[in-house]
Every structure is written in C-alpha cells, then in structure tokens.
Amino acid sequence: MGSFSKVVLLGNLTRDPSTGTLPSGATVCEFGLAVNRRWKDADGQMRDEVLFMDCAAYGKPGQTMGQYLKKGHPVLVEGHLKLDRWQDDQGQARSKVRTVVERFQFIGRGDQALPEQNRAAKPAGRRKRSTGSNAPTADQTPREVLPV
Q1: What are the DSSP E strand ranges found in 14-92?
Q2: What is the rounded (10 degree) CA torsion for 78, 117, 13, 36?
Q3: Where are the domains of the chain?
Q4: What are phi and psi of 50, to 5 degrees?
Q5: Coil, helix or strand for 28?
Q6: For residue 3, pLDDT beyond 70
Q7: What is the distance between the alpha carbons of residues 91 and 15, in angstroms, rounded to a whole number?
Q8: Quick one: DSSP state of residue 25?
Q9: Average pLDDT score over residue span 20-39
C-alpha cells in the first residue's frame, strides 16, 4: 500500500523567521505558524482551536521567506510532514513534527508582504476590466508560488 504526506497551512507567523546555512551551503529558514480552526460544538457554541506548527524552508524559498516575512505576517505554505527525533541534555528522547515547506505564497497584507521588486511593478490605481476580456487586471494577478 502506498503512503502520502501532504500538508497545506494558512496562518500567521508566531515569530520572526530564523535563517541559517547548512553544511551543504543551502539556506534554511525556520519559523512558527499559528493556524486557527473554528467550529460549532454540540451545544451550538462557537469554539476556536489554535495549532502552532514549526516549519522549515530550504534553498531559495527559505532565503526569500527569511528576507520578507516577519512575525504576524500571513502566509500560505504547502509541504510535507517530517518527524525530528533527538535526545535532550538530560538524555530524554524527544520528538517534534515539523512542516517542510515545498511551496509558499505571500498573503495580502497590502504591499508589506511583497518583495521590494514587486512593489514597484504594481500600479498605483485600480484599472477597470473591459467587458469581453478574460485577462486579469494587474490587481487580480496571482502572487508568485515558489517551489523548493
């Protein structure tokens, strides 16, 4: 039987990203992501649940995320789950599930989540869409998704 590990998360960074370099020379960016879930319980009351996920992005995506994201910024990440295991200072076995980011997308907080080179390319005003045209206007163009 086959297996599959895929995760898609949309949330806000819980801390500023931490970037470093692996022995191979690749960039690694580690950050925390808070993801909210809202539902009605059996009594009809709205309930909230927050999940805090540790994430890691490698290579160019990790470099870009470390450069442009800050605590509180929203981001959409797509990747797979990885189980990290280690022993702490007292010799106790520890483990943590982490999301390894394969692709991500900046989510609108105005222009503050966009890389500097994309800010200059964005027009100052809104353009009206002409009837009969299926081409998106500049304000409707999807943001870049970067693969690992």
Answers
A1: 18-21, 27-40, 46-58, 74-87
A2: -60
A3: 7-121+132-147
A4: -115, 130
A5: strand
A6: yes
A7: 28
A8: S
A9: 94
